[in-house]
Design goal:
- One of its GO terms (biological process) is regulation of DNA-templated transcription.
- InterPro entries: Arc_rbn_hlx_hlx (IPR013321), Ribbon_hlx_hlx (IPR010985).
- The protein is mainly α.
- Helix content is 53%, strand content 0%.
- Helix 1 packs across helix 2.
Length: 45
């Protein structure tokens, strides 16, 4: 994926969901952004 193929979005989520996602991301040594992207790319289509 090239940088020109990317776009930024603003995502508003509840604080408790963010905390949960941060813990999950930390557990697999990923940033929150990278973890969310990985989860979305691996979802069943």
């Amino acid at each position: 994926m090239k940088a020109t193929d990317k776009t930024k979005i603003l995502l508003t989520i509840p604080e408790d969901l963010k905390e949960e996602l941060v813990k999950e991301a930390d557990a697999v040594n990923r940033s929150l952004n990278n973890y969310i992207l990985t989860v979305l790319l691996k979802r069943e289509k």
